[in-house]
């Protein structure tokens, strides 16, 4: 399980590029071995030609992709469960409601059974969806904001600011993300809010690196020069002219980051580093583990929920990637 | 020989970039240590059950905890220069020693997982690229995406249910039969039995990554002219793939493997807690449980340095694999 | 004795097109046969088809390739691998990308030797040094351990040639071997190929779009258009008086044809239009661009017909014009008598 490098992992070329773009290497010069760069699905960052994003074509490509549609449907199902949880299970999902350790389908009141403290597994599952999605999306939103801001400033300004910010990103990327996350959460005491910002803190560097590469690629283009010659301010040029062109790879990365954040949250909760007052899939697995030999469904069921949600997000990410990077989807 | 000079150049370049990063990591971990609530004195006092203000102050002074921030940073650096990461009150031994005890276990687990992931991932990627666009490719792509979505700790638990509980083929955890006198081949086999499940749990995610990566890289290399040249010599498809396609597709995968070291380490932490594997991960878990931050930060610092070392190694392997890199300054 | 290579009614098909159609020709031992045509005429695919190295989507749809008593088009893959590199070798257009960047020249040259002749690593290396010397790469002892990126384009193409001739093939196919090179290097590489052809007594199938190359090095020349042979002759005959309108157009568009002529003497002409769709079913493929086309040209594919000794042309209009002095059947008769598809009369050589 890679918690820290998940989304990175998918963009080998981003990595290669980030290396080529470290301050000591001349910017934007492809590495000598450019013909052997790794074209994983997500090499969005290496697009050298900036095309105006054709949204309608992208949407059509997305809708024609069965994998992406499956992803959307699964994700919608999870979201629906999260929305309906308070209505269907108004009580505290952590409260004891029945006989402990009922197997699924043993008692029609508890279709997925109860755990060792007599808590309803289905209620926990649906309330857990709220936690997972909330933390996943909130952490991603924070990480995206920070990462895009840092990356855009570094890529646009260049020079010493760039060198300093790149160094900062490098420091963060040298630290194993998940171990840093454990330290942060352990220091700050686990709560939903600390989980969100701790996950954001270990995730932003990758967004910053991606954004920086994209911004550098776009910065020299004619329309940016034109905006500059018209006397627009730097802020306006970055936000209105450059970022929209850098958006597709960032969108793709975002969907994978949500998946990664959910995986990280579940692993933390499994290790006991989650808000003790909130039910989470990871903590359900953690407590189910104690009955692994006798009541393995208590562990299996919340895990399947994680797999389904993360798979949905990854399918979505793949679909977005194919739709937004037509050059690559042609290879498939 | 040019390979040597290439490696030397790559090493110099990598070290120049790594040294400031390492300093940054040290400062970061020091700052985190300062942020940590309570300190070693608090922990010891809590363990002892009761402590007066005076004994607390004495304890703090003995750990150097009453000094101003900058002096403490210098003391921290001084300690690091002497390979000292502080003292763990919880385990009652120096942190460096504690980590040194547990490190081999983690490295062994990571090594096995990485090797499994690379071998299986490359094989799957080769198959996928050979059938690109046809059903074996599509089926394996879905499998890869599934592997990619499974939390390692959960698949670890499920593997325990299947192979240890239901089938009884493999041990459910631990690092080897306690007191096992088996040596030589038997000893190795015995250790391997304990290694299989954690290794697979940790590897699965990376199998998915390398399979996707290898597929794409091999498709790209296969389209290149020199592959046709090799076929025109009369080489068999297998010889072309092994002798020409694979070496050229390897370069991006090696880069990624270096960068995955940190992720693997994080993954190992969770997988080790599942299998009670005696490594850094279990140590971190125990440190979290007892809020022993000196141990936790020691693990953080050491693993960061290992990550940097892994990146340097990946650069060196790449320089060794690719003769063209000699021209990069 | 039969020719070294006899290609009979070879067609190469892709799912959506048939870029080589019913192509027949022969290569004699030791000769240089040139195939000329513009890009898209199917000449490179023909070369790849002979090696059975067509892209995955392509296949030999029909026809035969007789070589050494066997039909390469029907040979199983394992047997074909024993032909490639050993009996028939190939030099490709792009020297910059045709060598594996991660292997030394010695390893790449030695690979075929170890495969086909079972040489040891050491013996293969020794032969590689000899071969580098043979293709006039300076300091072969040092170069044998060099990687391709250290070599210039011309040197890389020499290394490619060394790889190709390593096992002493009887036929060397050179697909645009000099197109990617500087003009000054081009002549050296062609001279090298010609010298090796003579020294190693191989035949050379030279695929090019450069009529200057043809004029200087070829014993015979085949003009291809849209996947079919439209004219075959010896270079001096062809250049003196091309028959097929496409050949005429090619010659008129070529600046280097007559060394005495300078571009200031008269404008270079170009052939109007672009290469016809090979998917078209009826009529002469060149008819849409042909200044001499008559309505009959669009009705049926004209067959190859002798136009004098050692000379074939697939254009009844040109034949008719050519033999206007002598009484001849009408154009329509000429077309109808020579239009039985697939009938190709090989020149007597």
What would your notes on this structure say?
The complex is a heterotrimer of chains A (332), B (329) and C (349). Chain A is mainly alpha-helical. Chain A folds into two domains: 48 residues, no CATH class; 277 residues, MetI-like (MetI-like fold). Chain A contains 13 helices and no strands. In chain A, helix 3 crosses helix 12. Chain B has two domains: 92 residues, no CATH class; 230 residues, Orthogonal Bundle (MetI-like fold), CATH 1.10.3720.10. Chain B is 78% helix and 1% strand. Chain B is built from 13 helices and two strands. In chain C, the strands form two sheets. Chain C has an eight-stranded mixed sheet with strand order 6-7-8-3-9-10-12-11, sandwiched between helices. A four-stranded antiparallel sheet of chain C has the order 2-1-4-5, with helices on one face. The termini of chain C are close together. The C terminus of chain C is likely disordered. The interface between A and B is large, with 72 and 85 residues.
Termini of chain C, distance in Å?
Answer: 11 Å
Number of domains of chain C: 2
User: Percent of residues of chain C in helical segments?
Assistant: 25-40%
Instruction: Report the major sheet of chain C.
Output: 8 strands, mixed
Strand content of chain C: 15-25%
Number of strands of chain B: 2
CA radius of gyration of chain C is: 21 Å
Placed side by side, the strands forming the largest sheet of chain C appear as 6-7-8-3-9-10-12-11
Task: Name the CATH architecture of the largest domain in chain C.
Answer: 3-Layer(aba) Sandwich
Low-confidence stretches of chain C: 257-266, 325-349
Question: For the residues shown, what is the average pLDDT of chain B?
Answer: 79
CATH H level of the largest domain in chain B: which superfamily? MetI-like
């Amino acid at each position: 399980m890679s918690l820290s490098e998940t989304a990175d992992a998918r963009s080998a070329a981003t990595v290669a590029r980030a290396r080529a773009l470290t301050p000591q290497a001349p910017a934007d010069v492809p590495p000598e071995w450019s013909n052997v760069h790794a074209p994983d699905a997500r090499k969005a960052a290496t697009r050298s030609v900036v095309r105006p994003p054709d949204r309608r074509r992208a949407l059509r490509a997305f809708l024609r992709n069965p994998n992406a549609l499956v992803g959307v449907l699964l994700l919608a199902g999870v979201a629906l469960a999260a929305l309906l949880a308070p209505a269907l299970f108004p009580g505290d999902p952590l409260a004891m409601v029945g006989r402990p350790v009922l197997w699924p389908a043993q008692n029609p009141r508890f279709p997925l059974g109860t755990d060792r403290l007599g808590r309803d597994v289905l209620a926990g599952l649906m309330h857990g969806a709220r936690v997972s999605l909330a933390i996943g999306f909130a952490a991603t939103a924070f990480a995206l904001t920070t990462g895009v801001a840092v990356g855009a400033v570094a890529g646009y300004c260049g020079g010493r600011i760039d060198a300093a910010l790149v160094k900062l990103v490098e420091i963060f990327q040298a630290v194993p993300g998940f171990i840093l996350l454990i330290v942060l959460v352990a220091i700050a005491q686990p709560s939903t809010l600390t989980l969100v910002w701790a996950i954001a803190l270990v995730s932003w560097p990758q967004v910053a690196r991606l954004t920086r590469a994209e911004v550098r690629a776009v910065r020299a283009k004619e329309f940016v020069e034109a905006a500059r010659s018209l006397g627009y301010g730097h802020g306006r040029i970055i936000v209105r002219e450059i970022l929209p062109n850098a958006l597709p790879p960032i969108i793709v990365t975002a969907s994978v980051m949500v998946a990664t954040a959910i995986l990280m949250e579940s692993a933390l909760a499994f290790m006991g580093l989650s808000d003790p007052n909130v039910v989470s899939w990871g903590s359900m697995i953690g407590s189910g583990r104690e009955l692994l030999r006798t009541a393995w469904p208590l562990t299996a069921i919340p895990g399947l929920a994680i797999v389904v949600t993360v798979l949905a997000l990854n399918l979505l990410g793949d679909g977005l990637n194919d739709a937004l990077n037509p050059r690559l989807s042609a290879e498939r | 020989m040019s390979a040597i000079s290439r490696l030397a150049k790559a090493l110099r370049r990598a070290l120049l970039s790594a040294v400031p990063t390492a300093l940054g990591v040290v400062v970061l971990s020091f700052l985190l240590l300062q942020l940590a609530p309570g300190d070693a004195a608090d922990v010891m006092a809590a363990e002892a059950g009761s402590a007066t203000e005076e004994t607390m102050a004495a304890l703090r002074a003995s750990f150097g905890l009453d000094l101003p921030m900058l002096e403490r940073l210098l003391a921290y650096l001084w300690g690091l220069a002497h390979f000292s990461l502080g003292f763990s009150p919880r385990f009652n031994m120096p942190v460096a020693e504690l980590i040194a005890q547990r490190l081999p276990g983690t490295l062994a687990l990571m090594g096995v997982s990485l090797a499994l992931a690379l071998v299986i991932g490359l094989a799957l990627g080769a198959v996928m690229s050979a059938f690109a666009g046809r059903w074996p490719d599509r089926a394996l792509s879905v499998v890869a995406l599934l592997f990619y979505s499974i939390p390692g700790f959960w698949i670890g638990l499920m593997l325990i249910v299947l192979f240890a509980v239901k089938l009884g083929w493999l041990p459910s955890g631990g690092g080897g039969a306690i007191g096992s006198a088996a040596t030589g081949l038997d000893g190795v086999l015995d250790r391997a039995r304990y290694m299989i499940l954690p290794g697979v749990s940790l590897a699965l995610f990376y199998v998915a990554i390398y399979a996707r990566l290898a597929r794409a890289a091999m498709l790209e290399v296969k389209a290149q002219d020199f592959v046709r040249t090799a076929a025109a010599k009369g080489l068999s498809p297998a010889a072309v793939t092994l002798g020409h396609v694979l070496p050229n597709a390897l370069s991006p995968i090696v880069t990624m493997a270096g960068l995955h070291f940190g992720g693997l380490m994080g993954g190992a932490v969770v997988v080790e807690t599942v299998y009670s594997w005696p490594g850094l991960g279990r140590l971190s878990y125990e440190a979290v449980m007892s809020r022993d931050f000196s141990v936790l930060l020691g693990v953080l610092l050491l693993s960061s340095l290992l990550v940097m070392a892994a990146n340097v190694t990946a650069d060196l392997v790449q320089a060794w694999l690719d003769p063209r890199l000699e021209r990069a300054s | 004795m039969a020719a070294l290579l006899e290609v009979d009614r070879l067609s190469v098909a892709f799912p959506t097109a048939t870029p080589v159609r019913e192509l027949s020709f022969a290569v004699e031992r030791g000769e240089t046969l040139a195939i000329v045509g513009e890009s898209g005429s199917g000449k490179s695919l023909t070369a790849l088809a002979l090696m059975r190295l067509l892209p995955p989507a392509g296949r030999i749809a029909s026809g035969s390739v007789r070589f050494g008593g066997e039909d390469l088009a029907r040979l199983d893959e394992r047997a074909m691998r024993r032909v490639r590199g050993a009996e028939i070798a190939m030099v490709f257009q792009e020297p910059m990308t045709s060598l594996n960047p991660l292997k030394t020249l010695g390893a790449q040259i030695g690979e075929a030797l170890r495969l086909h002749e079972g040489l040891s690593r050491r013996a293969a290396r020794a032969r590689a040094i000899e071969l580098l010397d043979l293709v006039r790469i300076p300091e072969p002892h040092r170069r044998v351990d060099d990687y391709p990126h250290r070599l210039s384009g011309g040197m890389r193409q020499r290394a490619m040639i060394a790889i190709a001739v390593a096992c002493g093939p009887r036929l060397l196919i050179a697909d645009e071997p000099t197109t990617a090179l500087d003009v000054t290097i081009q002549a050296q590489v062609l001279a090298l190929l010609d010298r090796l052809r003579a020294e190693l007594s191989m035949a050379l199938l030279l695929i090019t779009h450069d009529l200057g190359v043809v004029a200087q090095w070829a014993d015979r020349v085949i003009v291809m258009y849209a996947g079919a042979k439209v004219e075959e002759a010896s270079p001096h005959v062809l250049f003196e008086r091309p028959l097929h309108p496409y050949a005429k157009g090619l010659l008129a568009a070529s600046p280097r044809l007559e060394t005495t002529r300078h571009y200031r003497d008269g404008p270079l002409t170009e052939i109007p239009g672009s290469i016809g769709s090979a998917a078209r079913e009826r009529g002469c493929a060149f008819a849409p661009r042909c200044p001499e086309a008559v309505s009959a040209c669009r009705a049926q594919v004209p067959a190859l017909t002798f136009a004098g000794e050692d000379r074939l042309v697939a254009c009844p209009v040109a034949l008719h014009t050519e033999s206007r002095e002598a009484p001849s059947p009408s154009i329509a008769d000429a077309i109808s008598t020579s239009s039985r598809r697939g009938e190709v009369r090989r020149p007597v050589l």
